[in-house]
Write a structure and sequence with these properties.
With 164 residues, this protein is mostly helical. Strands 1-4 form a two-stranded antiparallel ribbon. The longest helix has 20 residues.
């Protein structure tokens, strides 16, 4: 059971779109700080600050060190999956911002977007969202396909105040 300080530290760690992007980057493959910095166009010191935050809160783990191109020791980091099981208070703004950063520069053909407006009572809304959550959980808890392509899915559900 985590204490309040651990909860607060984990909540702060997940409050950054950049840290969420690092977790996504390290989800399927261990990456070194240099690789993370290059992929996200960051200064390596900035990337290391965020990597250390994610390490200290259990969201990243260090893998076995390896030897880099110039013989230097490199440590790859891998996401632990803990963020999927962590409750994020007031997560919507940071998740939407992370999503927008991740799709920046993609061609429209590289993004599938659906939008649906429906009218449901509380029972049916809860039932629908439960079914969607089950599908997400099923795929999140399964093994990655070795021949698969890394993809991301974001689902946003909101009340439509304009339809009242």
């Amino acid at each position: 059971m985590e204490n309040d300080d651990e909860f607060q530290a984990r909540a702060r760690a997940l409050s950054s779109p950049l840290r969420l992007r690092i977790l996504r980057l390290c989800l399927h493959k261990g990456r070194t700080n240099k690789e993370i910095a290059e992929a996200l166009e960051l200064n390596p010191a900035t990337a290391l600050h965020h990597v250390r935050t994610l390490l200290s809160t259990g969201y990243l783990r260090a893998e076995e060190p390896r030897t880099g191109n110039r013989g230097a020791k490199e440590i790859p980091y891998r996401a632990t999956g803990l963020s999927w099981r962590t409750s994020m208070p007031n997560a919507a703004p940071v998740l939407v911002e992370t999503f927008l950063q991740e799709i920046e520069g993609l061609r429209p053909s590289e993004i599938d977007v659906w939008r649906l407006g429906i009218r449901l009572n509380e029972e049916n809304r809860t039932k629908m969202m439960g079914r969607v959550r089950e599908i997400f959980e099923e795929y999140a808890s399964g093994d990655a396909d070795e021949d698969g392509t890394a993809t991301s899915i974001m689902l946003a559900h909101h009340l439509d105040r304009s339809a009242d």
